[in-house]
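Usage

Read records sequentially. Each one opens with the input sequence:
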Amino acid sequence: MNRPNRCRTTLAGLATAATLSAFSLSAPATAQILPPSTHDGVVLITQEMAMSGNVTPGDGPGFPITITQPGSYRLAGNLTVDNLLSRAIEIQATGVSLDLNGFVVRGARCGPSRCTINPPDVPGIYSTKDDLRIHNGTVENFPGAGIRLGSGTLESLVVRDNGSDGISVHGSGLVSRVRASRNRRGVMMQAGRIEHSMLQFNTLSQLQVLNGIGTVSGNLLLGPAPMGESGTRLPMSANDNLCGPAIYNASRC
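and closes with the structure output:
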């Protein structure tokens, strides 16, 4: 018996369904302006601290802010990176929780007048470490991925207008309540779970789970993106997603 096609492909249907509580993505919380200091064991980060350096031992002045110790960190203002070749934050320790606190981490992705043909693959937030959590804010306008991690949890984020993936997880991860739009790919991961997220208008694909080991559930996937295996690919375990056109294996929605 053929499996029922659970994918809804009309834009009208998607627009209606997207209003349901299953897709009521909570936006990042309103930014709270806090003085740059350590508060209740949480290290607060500002643009001024980034310019001065020494946020953690070994962190030099300017970007990237280098986090070398486990613990909890929280933005106390927006971060703006003016150098096309610079990351905003590099995490070099396991066991780090980074609360963007409703603020924006903004890169210097080039426009037609100031860019080479192939812009550098520079992510906004980068780490190869494990046991990381990044949540509650926006990462935008970097020439590479918005966020690129080894493994970790990413929650309540907006990732948009990045030159590569909105979110790239090279191990196993949890992506939950994320809005990824106008990146090259919305979310790319090796394995893990993508849930309750809105992935839309990313130019190459909305999501890819590269080794097919993962759960994709309760998401809204909306094109345009190319048809075929280079586009959006859903693992066998995908279910209860709402899909627009250009989904390679839409029967798995």
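Summary fields computed downstream for this record:
- The first strand starts at residue 38 and ends at 39.
- The chain has two helices and 18 strands.
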